[in-house]
Amino acid sequence: MNRLKLKQKLFNNFRVSTAFAILLLCSATLSAQQAEIKVFAHRGGKMEFAENTLQAFQEVYKKGLRGYETDVRLTKDKHLVIFHDDNFKRIFGVEGSVEESTLEEIKALRTKDGYQIPTLDEALEFFNSKPWLYIEFEMKTTGSFYTEKVLEEYCDELYEKIHAHKPPTSDYLMTSFDSRPLKYLRSKYPSVDLLLIKGEGLSEKVLEEAKALGINRVGCKIEGTTRAMVRTAKKQGFIISLWPGSSIDDFILAIGLESDYACSDVPVAVYEWVKENAPWITLK
């Protein structure tokens, strides 16, 4: 009996989800002949490829996408590397962290699929060879390792490296949940493109925080964000990105909310679904 109830519940959830998606599509089609949104690969598409690896970046590009989000940390011996977590447990199954390890020690590690953590230089070698990319470099700077001095060194090196050979047609953003690097970068490099990330829905409070930092780009959670709030933000000159996108339904919701950007863990699935089912959507 319990198994039958579970199956029925799953089926009902599927029907509701599908009906909601169709409703959103119809609404968007009626309200505009063409919708535009930029889809970018969260950690290189973490539900489709080995996250934050060169292989992920390369495969996403081969599939036709031109947007990425990635994470940058600083090793104990002051090298910038691409890695999300504050420890090695999930990815490598061992103790330790980027900040506690040297680059040589990190390069000896392998993911379960046999991949290495790339350095920022290795990632940039790939990104800089491709025109028309959109990339968010998330600054992972929380924790006691990132003292004020270390934070400033980190920000300066990251800024200099990502802008040294950036193709003029590409957009490279420096992003963070942590207001400290955003404040420092805005004060030292006034023209830098910044984005404030928040683990909550879009609100007036979030917009006021961004204004205080001198930032006009905000990345908020899909949950808790309303279309009215997105429209209000746009009227004030903000560019809105929504996350997390772990499914096609999440992407459709981002379209319905009129987001400018959609951060997706399944960017290839989204890209292929749009081509087959929603040609009225332009993936910028």
Keywords:
TIM Barrel, alpha/beta, 43% helix, 11 helices, 284 residues, 8-stranded parallel β-barrel, single chain, globular, 10 strands
Protein model, in words:
The N and C termini lie far apart (48 Å). The chain has helices at residues 2-31, 54-62, 89-92, 103-107, 120-127, 148-164, 179-188, 204-213, 227-235, 248-256, 267-277; strands at residues 35-42, 67-74, 80-82, 134-139, 171-176, 194-197, 217-221, 239-245, 261-264, 281-283. Strand 7 (217-221), helix 9 and strand 8 form a beta-alpha-beta unit. It contains 11 helices and 10 strands. The protein is 43% helix and 19% strand. An 8-stranded parallel beta barrel has the order 1-2-4-5-6-7-8-9, surrounded by 7 helices. It has 2 domains: 1-31; 33-283, TIM Barrel (Alpha-Beta Barrel). It has 284 residues and is α/β, with parallel strands linked by helices. The longest helix is centred in the N-terminal third of the chain and has 30 residues, at 2-31. Helix 1 (2-31) packs parallel to helix 10 (248-256).
